[in-house]
Design brief:
alpha+beta; globular; 4 domains; DNA Primase, Chain A; DNA primase DNAg catalytic core, N-terminal domain; Dna Topoisomerase Vi A Subunit, Chain: A, domain 2; five-stranded antiparallel β-sheet; 574 residues
Amino acid sequence: MSNTTETIKERIAIVDLVGSYIKLERAGSSFKARCPFHNEKTPSFFVSPERGGYYCFGCNAKGDIFTFVQEFEGLDFKGALKVLAERAGVPLTYNGVSSSDGRDRLFEVMEVACRFFESLLVKNAFAKDYLSSRGLTLQTIADFRLGVAPHDWRVLVDHLSRAGFSDKELLAAGLAKDGPKGIYDTFRARVMFPIADSSGRVIAFSGRTLESDAPIAKYLNSPETALFSKSKVLYGLDRAKKTIRLSDQAVLVEGQMDLLMAHQAGTQNAVASSGTALTRDHLELIGRLTRRLVLAFDADGAGVSAALRSATMALSMGFEVRVAGLPPGEDPASLIISRPDVWHAAIKDALPLIDFYLARVMSGKADLRVRGRLIAKDVLPYVAVLDSSIEQSHYIKKISDILGVREESAWEDLAKVPREIDLVSNNQTIGKDSSVSSLKTSARKSLIGKKLLGIMYWRGSLSPPDSVSKDIARRLTEIIGSKRFTEIDDFYQKKRADLILEAELSFSESQPLSKSVAELFREFEKEFLQDELRVKMDELSLAEREKNHDRAFSILKQCQTISSKINALASMNI
């Protein structure tokens, strides 16, 4: 294997590799860029052609072409090796040594299972007719390796057992479940959609039932395994990533059929959340490839709501977000079958989020006074967090023209947008009218903070209150200070009932509450540290411009300490 890796290194220059992922600028004999592994405004990521490596002074990321692909695409070493070998045109041969954690065996069993499902689809006329009725061609079915799981309790288990895999391995891969009479197949009587990692290796399955009248879930996904975490995997990303880079845009759809039909129609920069809620991890995967995102969700109420929730999160992470307006009653798959030209037009003419909101408000039958209230409630909060004052002015003029009011009045309403949990600075006032220039808030921290407050109020309202409420209050006080916590608590008392309802709906039937709270606090602390790192990087840039080398070195050490804390939080096993 060492000869193979050296051959790959000889054929792929690190500048060419990294430059195919991110934009590089020459800096003397090296190249620099904004680091793809942490948020920053000033480039601190350097690539050295002479050393064949890279280093980030902000987060300490470093390595060669293999570590870069591993980190950028979220792969293990063998996954990165597969990607780079294909790029270099080097055939791979393995020495037969498996990884110590058994991941190699899990990859093997998932591949064997995928081939088995594929072979069964060839013989299953009913499943093939179903896929054909949904508009899929034989080429798409083959490209995405669709298969079928028969209506049988142990056909896959028996096949894999004969292939030499143990019960323990089948359970660990999520392909089998344990029952009183032994293990049995997880998937039965379902069309199978393989889910792959960034290098194209099968890591999970999503199965769509073929029994329309059966009282079972329509879709069934693999459980969380050592290979698969649904919050960190996007369906189709392995096939879409190249086109996303080239087009500098990603199209996000909801389900597998939407994704398959989109690719079949030529929208090959589409990825899918596979019916699960979009997460920050999903967006970070996309963000390494592009900062431009088009949301193409179902045109019904639930689809629009999901799109707007996703858009809010994406905006808070610095994405340029557009929303494709699909015709009423249509989803991407059905629209592509009936009117592919309308689909392509919807993607091409997707509206920026604020324009989409405005269009929704203006499409209703309400009078101007009601529309004004809706705009103040649903649109102005997004105008308030725009980074550009020019963009703000553009939308204020547009809103004043729509409503027939003076621009000054719209600016006054913008200044009255209620503050959310703004933890960027401890000397800002919550709940007071603020100037337009001070309205920009940390939307990400606001979102996490509101969730924590909601859980705190919810668990505190129980009879008797449980310890979760007190624990959250204590930890928030430790992080932001008692005075700040009291101000926030006082401000949100009037929204207490809404926050409790949201917490009950979001966390009653999810994973253990303690785990959800721990994850929220981890993200909360990461946001604080990332803000601190951004400030330090600005200070570092100033010190470098002033040629104050001692101060620059001191700040750099501080940046490294903060980065280590962020990395420790990111790797924390919750």
